[in-house]
Amino acid sequence: MSDANPAQGAGESDGPDLAARLRDMSPERLAEEVISVWEEVLKVEGELATARQRARALEMELEARESDGSARARVAELEEGMRVAESRIVQMELLLENERARRADIEEGGGQDRFEELQGENSRLLRSEEEHVMLILDMEGQLERLVAELEGLKNRSSQ
């Protein structure tokens, strides 16, 4: 609207004053004012639509950033899982390599020396076990003798 518009600030004036001013206007001037106000309303509606579009675009960008954050967390989680799996693979490869070396030693006859060493160790452990069993049996016999003597002493003292 132009500065010379008598209807400008109509919200501030009373209804009868506005009606009187509009009656005093020529039909051409009234048509110009209506068209001017109509164009201003269209302009404000366009600005409102643009503002709504900008707000929706900002909301979508915010949602994208939030989902991007969770996607980043998921990527970091997957990368950590991959690092753990890779270290496990390296560990398993070392175990496989050690087992292959051990089997190669056995096949080359180096395993025969180890076998004889283990048989000697087994014999020593069996002798040690026999000695321990004999010792335990001897101790059980002595314990039974002591228990019998204690019961005899108890019976004699209670009489």
Give a description of the structure:
The protein has helices at 15-24, 27-107, 110-158. It starts with 14 loop residues before the first helix and ends with a helix. The protein contains 3 helices and no strands. The protein has 159 residues and is mostly helical. The model is unreliable at 1-13 (pLDDT under 50). The longest helix has 81 residues, at 27-107.
Topology, element by element:
Blueprint lengths: L14 H10 L2 H81 L2 H49 L1
Short description:
The protein is mainly alpha-helical and 159 residues long.
Poorly predicted regions: 1-13
Taken in chain order, the helices and strands follow as HHH
β-strand number: 0
Percent in strands? under 5%
Count of runs of 4 or more consecutive helical residues = 3
The largest β sheet comes out as: none
Q: Report the helical percentage.
A: over 70%
Net shape = elongated
Overall pLDDT score: 84
The radius of gyration over CA amounts to 52 Å
| Span between termini | 132 Å
Q: How would you classify the helix and strand content by structural class?
A: mainly alpha
List keywords for this structure.
elongated; mainly alpha; 88% helix; 159 residues
